[in-house]
Design goal:
By secondary structure, this protein is mainly beta. Helix content is 10%, strand content 40%. The mean pLDDT is 90. It binds fe (ii) ion (FE2).
Length: 168
């Protein structure tokens, strides 16, 4: 895992992101999936507002309020998040560019984290994560390009990371 980098100077953001975030506020998982599936045309090229080639994992906060956080995330080939969940936060993301590799985890009888599934998602795919699902997002090391994803969190999450030694 690589730590997120500081925000970099990038293209100006399209108008309407605050209204989009406000619309998402309070949504349930089904409506949130629909919102990202039917992403407004003005945001379809929003991945250009991030420069993931700057290295590792890149995040650009688009909108933050007490109820919602909107983030553009980039990940170069060979990088992935640590297994984690988002207690208290419903979240979803849409793949904008590249291929997302999502690993989902469960617990064995001794409480150790074990891989439950590994799936890949193409651009346009939308994934919803409930607050207790433990997973990690990655970009395969053999991938031809950076992965760029658009994330909505309701509200901004307290991320709980799982390691060999337990939860941090
Ligand atoms: Fe996450």
């Amino acid at each position: 895992m690589t730590a997120p980098r500081a925000q970099l100077a990038t293209r100006p953001l399209p108008e309407g992101l605050e209204a989009f975030a406000a619309e998402a506020t309070g949504m349930n998982s089904g409506r949130l999936r629909s919102l990202l599936t039917n992403l407004p045309a003005a945001f379809r090229n929003i991945e250009r507002c991030l420069r993931p080639e700057e290295g590792g994992i890149t995040r650009r906060e688009l909108v933050r309020s007490p109820e919602v956080l909107l983030v553009l995330a980039g990940m170069e080939p060979g990088h992935s998040e640590a297994p984690h969940d988002h207690p208290g936060s419903l979240s979803a993301f849409r793949v904008l560019r590249g291929v997302a590799v999502v690993t989902r985890f469960g617990m064995d009888d001794r409480g150790s984290l074990v891989v439950a599934s590994l799936d890949t998602y193409l651009p346009g795919s939308v994934l919803v994560q409930d607050e207790t699902e433990v997973r990690s997002l990655g970009n395969d090391r053999s991938a031809a390009e950076a992965l760029v994803t658009l994330h909505v969190y309701l509200p901004a999450p307290a991320i709980r990371i799982y390691t060999e030694g337990g939860v941090t």
